[in-house]
Amino acid sequence: MEGLDDPAYFTLDHDWTLLGFLTYRQRLDDFQYGNGFEHSRYSSNLATICKWEEPSEAVMKKACQALSVFPVK
């Protein structure tokens, strides 16, 4: 998935929830605890998906569902 910081997570086989994303990121060496960076990273990934010219219907649906629970500010 082009332009994402975490393309390995934002695939159709993941749920795209904030908790799921944080659990995924926690296993990686560059995870940052307690400063809001990971929340911003999650939001940034979703915002990037929403800006794509022609995302598939399934991708757009997942991004919209995730944003409805955790809106990008």
Write a brief structural summary:
The protein has 73 residues and is mainly alpha-helical.
Question: What count of structural domains?
Answer: 1
CA radius of gyration: 12 Å
Structural class by helix and strand composition: mainly alpha
The first-to-last residue Cα distance is 22 Å
Order of helices and strands: HHH
Helix content: 40-55%
Biggest sheet architecture: none
Structure explained in plain terms:
The protein has 73 residues and is mainly alpha-helical. It has one domain. Helix content is 51%, strand content 0%. The chain is built from three helices and no strands. It has helices at residues 18-26, 37-51, 57-69. α2 (37-51) packs antiparallel against α3 (57-69).
Task: Please tag this protein with its features.
mainly alpha; 73 residues
Helix-strand layout with pairing:
Layout: H1 18-26, H2 37-51, H3 57-69
Helix pairs in contact: 2-3
